[in-house]
Amino acid sequence: MIGNWLDIGPVTQIEPGTARTLPVVGGEEIAVFHTMRNEFFAIVNKCPHKQGPLSQGIVHGDVVTCPLHNWNISLRSGKALGDDEGCVPTIPLKVDAGRIYLLRSAVIGGDDQAEAA
Amino acid sequence: MNAPMNFEEGRPAGHVRERLVVIGNGMAGCRAVEEILARDPGRFDVTIFGAEPRVNYNRIMLSPVLAGEKTFDEIVINTQEWYDDNGITLVSGDKVESIDREHKRVVAASGRIEPYDKLLIATGSDPFIIPVPGKDLDGVVTFRDLDDVDKMLAAAGQGGNAVVIGGGLLGLEAAHGLNLRGMDVTVIHLMPTLMERQLDEAAGWLLKTELERRGQTILTGANTKEIVGKDGKVAAVRLEDGTEIPASIVVMAVGIRPATGLAREAGLDVERGIMVDDHMVTSDPSVLAVGECVQHRGMCYGLVAPLWDMCRALADHVTENPTGYEGSVTSTKLKVSGIDLFSAGDFSGGEGCEDIVMRDASRGVYKRVIVKENKVLGAVLYGDTADGSWYFDLMKKGEDVSDIREALIFGQAFASGGALADPNAAVAALSDDAEICGCNGVSKGQVVSCINGGAHSLDAVRSTCKASASCGSCTGLVESLLALTLGGEVESGPKTMCKCTSFTHGDVRKLIVEKELREIPQIMQELHWTTPDGCASCRPALNYYLLCAWPGEYEDDQKSRFVNERMHANIQKDGTYSVVPRMWGGLTNPKELRAIADVVEKFNAPMVKVTGGQRLDIFGIKKEDLPAVWADLNAAGMVSGHAYGKSLRTVKTCVGSEWCRFGTQDSTGLGVQIERMTWGSWMPHKFKIAVSGCPRNCAEATIKDFGVVCVDSGYELHIAGNGGIKVRATDLLCKVETEQEAMDMCAAFIQFYREDAWYLERTAPWVERVGLQYVKDALAAEGAVEHYAARFRYSQQFMQDDPWAKRAAGEHEKLHQHLAEVRPFPGAKMENA
Fold first, then answer.
1. Which positions in chain B touch A53 (Cβ < 8 Å)?
2. Rounded Cα–Cα distance for residues B817 and A78 (Å)
3. Are strands B577-579 and B616-621 parallel, antiparallel or unpaired?
4. Which Pfam families does the entry link to (chain A) (predicted)?
5. pLDDT averaged over chain B?
6. Which of B27, B50, B314, B609 has fewest C-beta within 10 Å?
7. Residue B660, phi-psi category: left (phi > 0), alpha (psi -120 to 50), beta (remainder)
8. Which helix or strand (DSSP H or E) is residue A11 part of?
9. Which residue in chain B has the smallest CA separation from A70?
10. Number of H-type helices and E-type strands within chain B
């Protein structure tokens, strides 16, 4: 089981209400979010609208507002909210004993998922 | 059920009872025995091993013992007589060292060997000790058993300072007890919210405020680096940021871990806890386990309520009437007298979840119920927990709440009141003399006659009879009265700040000052925000209003800043940043130009451009390179140009009398002076200044927020121009004779704008909204210029501190660095950045 999950370090390295990035060589950069409600999410760091870096947006609830054109993206589903349409791939994430794990296949296969979305 | 039963019912004399050995004399072990005895008292010969040298007591009541609210005798669950009466052998103070499953026996520290037919492991959990230097010093204790409490009481007897590491349930209870015992207590909590597993930000803030009021020091977001000792005894706790807090005792209460050592060594299946099935049976059918040491369906529990259900299922199983345990939904209450706090279920929100929030600032109440698909998913209550068990019950039963949805947040009494379940109906049922607005003493009858008198909107009611015009907590009632009185005719009032509040920007600004609100969660509580943590519109606005209202006191909230202001650079469409160093009045020199050229080459910036504000913009810088770029620019004496902020941008100048044959005054020199005075100030929106040396106006001062046009006899001061989407030429504010007067008026105007305008309102629309005369009158009043200019200069002493230099020195480095990099080769490996 452990081999399927990629340990990306302790939860404390991401302040609540912020995100940090995880570049993937040959793949899509991933944004890992820590919400103020103390949940963690990972999505591809590209807004479905004009590829804005979602990791740099303001986080409120389980939503991030894209810094480029204020699209609101659900961190849970990756879907654009409100009248906007689009979806960004999500990466399965789990927190165990204070560390964050991403599903290895989703991290490595970020590219395929992005095309499929 | 593999122990052979040799005899029929009735167990004739000579029957040998099965031997049940229990490891752990705590709440779980003893409760399990009680449950078994209640079902079949004759089935087992019971031996209980306890590591502590005493009878079984109620561990969760240790907090009241520490606080002096209970004595040990009062929290004993089972006295020695209970063991004697039930023929139970209690081996206390003798720890079981190993389990020999092959021979079905346990070995204790004393060498005592006890054979079993059934073994029950109820070892509970161990406190987690954070691995920092000094953790083993004398005076560092945990909060788990009576010995710990005795150590804390001994320390409290000496007085002095106590540090509690961990702001969860246990840590706060320890802190409360030590505080009551007269110690100066500091709580150090790693996360920004106290009890973050049980509370959301809003409730955590209320709790923190209350504990601080009681004299405790609460440090959130604080990381312990070392426990400092002196002569082998604890002396202080040092944080990662270097702060040192003196301490004669340190209580480590950061969490617990299932105590699985014995089980693991005995070869039982163990993950985080000892793996058990629905009947509390481990991977060995003769060995059972119960309590905090087990892992059931992936869950480990650290609360008492699940124990009861586990023990029931265990007893049903060993007495051959299996029922099974299906996991528990837990709720939490903090046992700190005078603080009512309840949390249950999932309150993190999510897809399809709806938050129902009610805040009552005057009573200090915050309630949040999370509903999904018409079912209660979770609840957080602070200040009024009377309905906690009701919400918990609705949640556990998964009841459909669609019928009582409207009144759910008001509690059981209200929601189950039939007709009263409709808030409008409830308001309609009030008598005419019922008080609606407590702050201003307005009755229902008065509000209704005010509405009938023509006040057809919330705002009109507020300005006419003052109902809901102060704290706003009765806004909902007034809206109900409007709806009842007018039917569908209610006029919508002025635009509220955002969907999170019924207040306008103006209301919020006024109330922040009047009520002395000093933190974002405090505003949200006092002004009854309808969301737990605001949105991308209100958070930046509130952050600015607080920064403006409490200069030098309010701590800027980075997570409420728009990306550019958080990163101190301008984000571009490809996600890179552009960097604009400040060039005072548009002046530069070879050293600065060389430094810029070097940065461009060193970081491969693809473009450099001269901006409209007379400086140079370096494009294409990656976020992780920003601190290094700034360090290089700082080294040449340059600071942030704030080209990214709702702040003072540039002061554009022409060359003026020093060079120009038409120049009337030293416009360049004045521009530099103005920029030195105003740089670094945060504003409602971006703010541009220009100084032209003569009416030919080469610096385009008449389309700036503040423009100076020099003339022979002095300086014309213009305001509220804009060259953006909607071009607006400035209005003439006044004419002054000296540079000093021009500077003072500039400072005063900026401060008035900072304090009066709404967030994201440029000077042009602001002046259009409030009227030029309003601004003129405000600044023409006796002493007004001095007053506002002084306030601006006071505020500036906290702002003129180059943000680039701080970042280059490592502040907020997490904002710039990647977490790591993934290189997906076979057996992908992580490289920490």
1. 571, 575
2. 24
3. antiparallel
4. Rieske_2
5. 88
6. B609
7. beta
8. none
9. B536
10. 27, 40
Q: Smallest Cα–Cα separation from B291: which of B69, B60, B530, B120?
A: B120
* Closest CA of chain A from B51, distance in Å: 27
CA distance linking residue B120 with residue B114, whole number of Å? 13
Mutation to test the B interface, candidates A36, A71, A75, most B Cβ within 10 Å: A36
Q: What residues of chain B lie within 8 A of the CB of A107, using their CB?
A: 822, 824
From chain A, pick out residues whose CB is under 8 angstroms from the CB of B566. Answer: 56
Helix (H) or strand (E) holding B179: helix B169-180
Q: Whose structure tokens read 């052998």?
A: B89
Q: Between chains, do A14 and B832 touch, taking CB under 8 Å as contact?
A: no
Rounded percentage of chain B residues whose pLDDT exceeds 90:
57
Whether residue B440 is predicted with pLDDT greater than 90 in this model: the reply is no
Domains and CATH numbers, chain B: 18-125+258-318 (3.50.50.60), 140-254 (3.50.50.60), 340-421 (3.30.390.30), 427-560 (1.10.10.1100), 563-645 (3.90.480.10), 648-799 (3.30.413.10)
Domain at A2-110: CATH code: 2.102.10.10
Q: A61 contacts in B (CB within 8 Å)?
A: 349, 531-533, 535
From CA B275, how far away is CA B268, in angstroms rounded? 8
Q: Which residues of A touch B540 (CB under 8 A)?
A: 58
Q: Could you tell me if the ipTM is greater than 0.90?
A: no
Q: Which of A5, A58, A113 would you mutate first to test chain B, the one with the most B CBs within 10 A? A: A58
Q: Which helix (H) or strand (E) holds B623?
A: none
Cβ-in-10-Å burial (0-12, 13-18, 19+) of B98 comes to: middle
Note whether B819 contacts A32, CB cutoff 8 Å: yes
Interface of A with B in 60-79 (CB under 8 A): 60-62, 65, 67-68, 70, 72, 74, 76-77
Tokens at residue B518, please? 């000093």
- 3-state secondary structure at position B317: helix
Q: How far apart are CA B741 and CA B730, in angstroms?
A: 19
Kindly tell me if the per-residue pLDDT of A111 is higher than 60. Answer: no
Count of alpha carbons within 13 Å of B809, Cβ hemisphere only? 8
Asked if A56 lies within 8 A of B563 by C-beta distance, the reply is: yes
Mean pLDDT over A65-84 rounds to: 90
